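Hi D.,

Good news: the full-assembly prediction came through. Inputs first.
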Amino acid sequence: MQIEKPYLMFVGDVADQLAAKTAAGIVDWRRDWCVGQLRLPGCRADLGLEDLDIAEGVRRGARTLVIGVVNAGGVLPEHWISVIVEALEAGLDVASGLHRRLEEFPQIADAARHHGRQLHDVRIPSQSFATGKGSKRSGLRLLTVGTDCSVGKKYTALALEREMRAQGLDADFRATGQTGILISGRGVAVDAVVADFISGAAEWLSPEADPHHWDVIEGQGSLFHPSFAGVTLGLLHGAQPDAFVVCHEPTRRTMRGVPTALPSIRAVIDATIANGRLTNPGIRCVGIAVNTQALDEAAARACLAEIGQAEALPTTDPVRFGVADIVKRVREIFG
Amino acid sequence: MQIEKPYLMFVGDVADQLAAKTAAGIVDWRRDWCVGQLRLPGCRADLGLEDLDIAEGVRRGARTLVIGVVNAGGVLPEHWISVIVEALEAGLDVASGLHRRLEEFPQIADAARHHGRQLHDVRIPSQSFATGKGSKRSGLRLLTVGTDCSVGKKYTALALEREMRAQGLDADFRATGQTGILISGRGVAVDAVVADFISGAAEWLSPEADPHHWDVIEGQGSLFHPSFAGVTLGLLHGAQPDAFVVCHEPTRRTMRGVPTALPSIRAVIDATIANGRLTNPGIRCVGIAVNTQALDEAAARACLAEIGQAEALPTTDPVRFGVADIVKRVREIFG
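Then the structure:
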């Protein structure tokens, strides 16, 4: 899957900004891929882009209509379907992060076929994978891992890609979830792959590369999350990272969606090294990314200092303070 | 999925006994569920059952035609399709371990619909699962784990079920792969579940039960197999075993299908406890099952003695010497 750029961002008529979270993430990281936003009457979200209709979007060069919003109830409203069909008729592909496949709607499927357009359902892998091989590939890889789900693994990986490039490294973000796929225009939702092929999908995602090239791979779940650790382990084995960054949210007490206590950062470092050695004996932790959103600046600085000292690793909040120190550490170790 | 018993075993016209391996496993463990075998001219496999045609199978009470054979090339020959259709017309359900879904063959799908019969593709989960909850369920659980794939995890679990029942325990085998599903008439092929739902599928497979009831759960893969460890970890978390048995093949040097070296039994015990504690802090190893098929009896006894002494655990070859000592240990610990 390779989603054609640039994008016309479809916001529909969602009730609040939260419903447009995926679209907002795309604009945060890839504003220059977005020619504008398409909003319907009553829309209460705003991506901060120019409002365009489909015809104007096409004139500005848009290749794909991106549906990065969730609608109440999870169903696709009839008046959204007609906009999607209109976009296909105007020559746009459509990329969607919705739960239901675009193909399931006959009007959309027919219009795509009739006009020769692509439908991208980024939640659902469209290709088949081989099982993982486990053998070492050339190139360098960094994986973000976490004490839990939803602690900033995607954001950290994107911040690392940006900072690595700024510091002169050759680096590419590799997406493993739907928002990341829309942000990078490619990738695979590893949690939606058939279980036998998790590590194989990760190997496909980050193929052999130039010895100095970095793939910065978006992590998923946590080795300590009882719902999703299998995905995390398969991704770790397939990604075979040389380096990893632990992402953490210091005010969280239990894992997302379950009553299980959060593991310590040290436990995550140890488990990641113990398991990661299977496919890359040289694996090492290069930093810690802490989401301090819930803390004021003084408390955030104190928290980072404490963790950084305890673990003797560059420790930062990527949003507040950037990731320059982690990338500096990467360059010191790997040249 | 609940496959109706008894079975008429379809052997087709396969070229050798190996092609009927799944069917032979069913007969090994559930001979009293098998009313007979249906062989076509030229068949070179023999399950040691009476040869019956469909009409006679139905007269003897068969409810399901079981296709536990693989045909050369992986395609379903035309003359097998007509036998399957004939079975559906005669009122039998059909259960298949073939790679392709029975539904994909229009004649079979039509006949099943027309005659109101069930088609069971045991490789492909037919239900949807919730994500794993991770909370403790009542009842006792034993999981077989391995140093590698294909080291006897299914056989060991079935032998444990039989011996536990013989020693007066209330025990049920829980199948996680296609052959196991046909042997137990139910279960889920966990390696075919969408990655997000591995542990959820394992929780579904082994629900809350009487406090003294044992589920003996068939393990999959190995925590040290770079292709499949994600499946193994999700299954471990969802199964939340109180007890586990490590299965091992002493002559194997590299993991099945990959160049990775085999882990030690000790490494597997340690990793299983470290990871299993997340959903069951009381997890413990109760024995080791060694497949000594490649050794003569003296060498086998020496191998078992050496491993048993090193690990201070009941150590046996389930095929050669049974699993009575392991079950004795289980009763000592759990009452």
